[in-house]
Each structure stands twice: as structure tokens, then as C-alpha cells.
Amino acid sequence: MPPTTPAPGTTPAPPGRRERKKAATRKAIADAALHLFLERGYDAVGIREIADAADVSTTTLFKHFPVKEALVFDEDDDQEERLLNAVRERPPGTSVPAALREHALNSRLLTPDGDDRLTAFLNLVTTTPALRDYGQNMWLRHTAALARVIAEETGRPADDPACLALAHFALEAPRAAYGHADPRAAVISAFDLLEHGWETLTQDP
């Protein structure tokens, strides 16, 4: 069910006790899992160990995280809206691929900046194929919605395969950063390819 938008001039009600308890349980499970994964490696840790560390049952764990990979990623409900707004609200004169490139660099390219824990987290994700694939698939689920917005913004048919292709490859492009010595340069290079291909496609005959 979509979230309810509060009436103008009102403040959203704070979460109730049940919601706070649910959020606290979810965080405890995720924190316990990440601690164990960073300490011993993703593949060496079992679900029951994580449940025991968080002091919950495995049934409770699966209510919050349906698969093991989900323990590492916090799926943001606003993720898709920010992605679509990157296209809708792009500055005048900015191409769709350029807008998606900036979104990818700002939202999907985490940099440690001296944070040892973040460095360890990024190393865990990039060196674990199951986590890399899961994280990428979290983004690919937005392909259809992104394709529709690209079509709307560029005046192309709603079922235009070029819009679907651009949406798919734009969401795939950050994969180029995995294991690259300069992840930012790798992402920019991938989007340069999309930019030039899109320019050729949209040129007036």
C-alpha cells in the first residue's frame, strides 16, 4: 500500500510502539548479520547464527529479510522516486543519459573517504558475487518505470524499445565500477557510451 500523504500544514504522526519495535528488531538483525559477515565472510555465516546473535527466531528473521542477501541491503522505499526525478527534474539542456549518470555517481557510487567500516562493507559486497548480483537486481526492478519516464520526457512512444534499452543499460552501468581501480572513471566511461549512442538515435534525420 502506498504511503499516505499528510494534509497540508500537518505533521506526520510519529511511529507507534509496534512500528518502533519492528524497526528496532530489523536493525538488530541487520547489525548482527553485518558484524558476522565482516568478521568471518558472507558465505561462512549461517542464518541460524545470525538469528541467535540478534536474539530472535529464524522465523522472525525471515519476516524481516526474506533471503540472506537482503540482510546486507536496506531497500529504500523512495529509491525509485529519486531515480525517476533525476530524469524529470534534470536541468535544461541536460540529456537523459547525463542526468542518469549524475544520479549513478551520487547515489550508487559509495566512496569510503577514510571510513574503515565502509571500506570493509564495500569490500564485502564487491568480493561476494551473490551480494553484487542482489544489489544490482534491486536496481534493475526499476527498469520499466524508468523507461516510461524516459519516453514521457522525450516524446517517444510508451513502448519504445530504445527507451527500455537506455533504462536497462543505465541501471546496469554502475556494475562497470566493480573491481576497477577508479570506479568513478569507470562509471563515467560507461555513461559516455550511452550518451553517444542516444545522441545518434535522437538526431533529426
UniProtKB/TrEMBL annotation:
Residues annotated as DNA-binding are: 46-65
Occurrences of domain HTH tetR-type (ranges): 23-83
Compositional bias (Pro residues) at which positions? 1-15
| Magnesium recorded as keyword | no
Record has rRNA-binding as a keyword: no
Instruction: Show the Pfam families listed in the entry.
Output: TetR_C_14, TetR_N
Alphabetized GO MF terms: DNA-binding transcription factor activity; transcription cis-regulatory region binding
Mind listing the UniProt keywords for this protein, alphabetically?
Answer: DNA-binding, Transcription, Transcription regulation
Q: Where is this region: Disordered?
A: 1-23
Could you tell me which PANTHER family the record lists for this protein?
HTH-TYPE TRANSCRIPTIONAL REGULATOR BETI, HTH-TYPE TRANSCRIPTIONAL REGULATOR RUTR
Protein name as it appears in the record: TetR/AcrR family transcriptional regulator
Species name for this entry?
Answer: Streptomyces sp. R17
